[in-house]
Specification:
Order of helices and strands: HEEEEEEHEEHHHHHH
Shape: elongated
Structural class: alpha+beta
Largest sheet: 4 strands, antiparallel
Distance between the termini: 51 Å
Radius of gyration: 17 Å
Length: about 180
């Protein structure tokens, strides 16, 4: 079975509204999502309630909590729609079992996990090695359309700066151009 057939057969179409959570930090949630339309935000909440944005998820991306899906623990992050979204929900256990018996599905899973790992590696590098201004420049370079789709406060949270800090960074970057 090809992966597209697997999606058709076992995937469940999901329509979600803006501000609707697909799951929240601390919940058990064993699904993966293929994003067809919309924009989502994955984020953490600290014990004090401070939000830290992990990533923005766009059409063509897959997202899910591997900790919750594979390890059976609660999700370490929340997933919310920033725009109305169309998704395909896949039960992780179903896709995992299918990947053990089907080379095509296994290949898609390996590709998904590699893309996921590379995205995490890039994000870790940005947070640990780049200045906030360089993180902003990288965001502009790799996903410039996000700037028009996401509130400035969320851009600031993603970069790890305050909204005032983001305004200063934007001015410096604009003045340097």
């Amino acid at each position: 079975m090809q992966f597209s057939q697997f999606l058709e057969t076992y995937g469940k179409p999901v329509q979600a509204e803006a501000e609707e959570h697909l799951f929240r930090q601390g919940e058990d949630h064993g699904s993966l999502y293929a994003v067809r339309k919309g924009l989502l935000k994955a984020y953490y909440l600290s014990g004090e309630g401070k939000e830290h944005i992990k990533s923005f998820i766009q059409p063509g991306d897959f997202i899910g909590s591997l900790t919750a899906s594979y390890a059976g623990q609660s999700s370490s992050f929340s997933l919310v729609c920033l725009q109305p979204a169309e998704l395909i929900r896949l039960d992780f256990n179903q896709i995992y079992a299918a990947s053990r018996d089907n080379a095509n599905i296994a290949g898609v899973m390996v590709d998904f996990l590699l893309a996921f790992a590379m995205k995490k590696e890039r994000r870790e590098y940005e947070l640990l090695c780049l200045s906030a201004e360089d993180r902003y420049r990288e965001l502009l370079k790799t996903t410039p359309h996000i700037m028009d789709m996401v509130k400035q406060n969320e851009i600031a949270l993603y970069l790890g700066v305050t909204p005032v800090g983001l305004s200063r960074i934007k001015k410096r970057v604009t003045d340097a151009s």
